[in-house]
Write a sequence for this structure.
């Protein structure tokens, strides 16, 4: 207890440096790493009273999952589905670091092609039209998921 109260200034400085380093490394939202945390938050938001009432009524594990857990996690699942789909269209860093478009363009996705066209070949107008096409691809997928979620998301 005394050790926590009497921290040295060097400890505080070191922690702020570490925190700054983490903020620098995690500037973008990495959907793959945050999805389990969001699901855990969704699971923790389900009231325990529902599970207790179902247990008293004699519901088994599968019934509790299919009638309580799955429906109450549907808003979380819909959110993660939409953000995950958008993140797949934004894959850039892995391609840039590992393959730079790959052998004979085998790993070249639309975002990498946009970057290559705009900043390497300096065709900014053409790259802008690629960005509009990317937007036109992502928008109907997002709206389709938004319309479909009205059928299976329970609020």
């Amino acid at each position: 207890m005394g050790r926590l109260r009497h921290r040295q200034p060097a400890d505080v400085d070191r922690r702020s440096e570490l925190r700054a380093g983490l903020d620098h490394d995690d500037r973008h939202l990495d959907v793959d790493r945050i999805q389990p945390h969001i699901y855990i938050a969704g699971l923790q938001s389900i009231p325990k009273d529902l599970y207790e009432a179902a247990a008293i009524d004699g519901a088994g594990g599968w019934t509790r999952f299919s009638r309580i857990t799955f429906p109450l996690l549907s808003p979380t699942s819909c959110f993660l589905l939409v953000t995950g789909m958008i993140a797949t269209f934004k894959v850039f860093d892995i391609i840039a670091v590992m393959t730079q478009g790959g052998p004979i363009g085998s790993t070249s996705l639309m975002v990498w092609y946009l970057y290559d066209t705009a900043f390497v070949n300096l065709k900014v107008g053409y790259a802008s039209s690629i960005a509009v096409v990317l937007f036109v691809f992502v928008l109907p997928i997002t709206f389709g998921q938004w319309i479909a979620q009205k059928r299976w998301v329970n609020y």
About this structure: The radius of gyration is 23 Å.
